[in-house]
Amino acid sequence: MSSSTIEALDTRIIETIRYVGASISLVGRAIASLFKRPFEAIPIIEQMESLGLKSLTIVCLTSLFTGMVFCLQTGSAFVRFGAKSYVAKVVAIAITRELGPILVSLIVSGRVAAGIAAEIGSMKVSDQIDAIRVMGASPVKRLVMPRIVALFIMLPLLALIGDILGIFGAMIVAVVELDIKASYFISSSLDFLTPEDVLSGIGKCFFFGLIIAGIGCYQGLTTAGGTRGVGISTTRAVVLSSILILLSDLLLTKAFMLL
C-alpha cells in the first residue's frame, strides 16, 4: 500500500472520528438544553407525531411482511430436519432480540434522518438559523432538542410494535403453510421468551434514536452550498446513521450479553 493511500486513509479515519465526536457533542448540548428554561412541550409533541406516528405505517408493513418471510424461510428448513416445533421459539427470539429493532431503526433512519437533514439544511442555507440566533434563541434548543427527545421516546415504541407485528405475521405463515396451530405458536413463543430478550432489543433503540436524530441534525446544521448541499447532507445523513446503527448494534449486543 502506497504512502499516499495510507495518508488518505488516515485522513478519512480522523475526519470520521471528528464527525462522530461533533455529533455526540451536539446530542449532549441538546439534552442539556432540555433542562433549561423555558421548557416547551409542544415542539416535542409535534416532533413525536412527525417523526414517530407518521413512520408507523411503513414500520407496520415492514415488520409484518418480514416476520412472514422469515417464518416461511426458517419453517421450511426446520420441517426438513423434523424440528417444526421449534419454529415459533426461534422466530420469536430472533425478531425480539435483533430482527425487529434493527429493521425498524433502519427504516426510520431512511425516512427520518433524511427529513431532518433536509429540513434543517434548508433553514441553514436560507439563513433562517442565523435569524434564530439574532432573535436571541438557541438553534440547538429550538431545532435539535425536540427532535432528539421525540425520537428517543418514539423509536423504542415503534420497535415494540414492530416486534408484535413481526411475530403476528410469522404466526399467520405458520398456521397457513406449516399447519401449526395459532394457540400453540403463541404459547410456545411466550413460554420461550424472557423479559431480557425483549428489553435487550428495545433497549438498543434508545441509542439508535439518538444516533438517527443526532446525525440528521448535525448534518443539517453543517449544510453548505445551497440546494445542492441540502441534497448531499440528506444522503450523508442516511448513509452515516445506517452505518452507525449497524456498528453500535454489534457493540450493544456484546455489552448486553456481558451484562
Low-confidence stretches: none
What's the overall average pLDDT, rounded?
87
Helicity, in percent? over 70%
How many strands, what sense, and barrel or not for the largest sheet?
Answer: none
Overall SS class: mainly alpha
Broad shape = elongated
Strand content: under 5%
Please provide a brief summary of the model:
The chain is mainly alpha-helical and 259 residues long. The protein contains 9 helices and no strands.
Question: Any overview of this molecule?
Answer:
- There is one protein chain.
- The protein has 259 residues and is an all-alpha fold.
- It contains nine helices and no strands.
- The protein has helices at residues 3-34, 42-52, 56-80, 87-125, 128-134, 139-177, 182-192, 195-221, 226-258.
Highlighted features:
259 residues, mainly alpha
List the helices and strands and how they pair.
Layout: H1 3-34, H2 42-52, H3 56-80, H4 87-125, H5 128-134, H6 139-177, H7 182-192, H8 195-221, H9 226-258
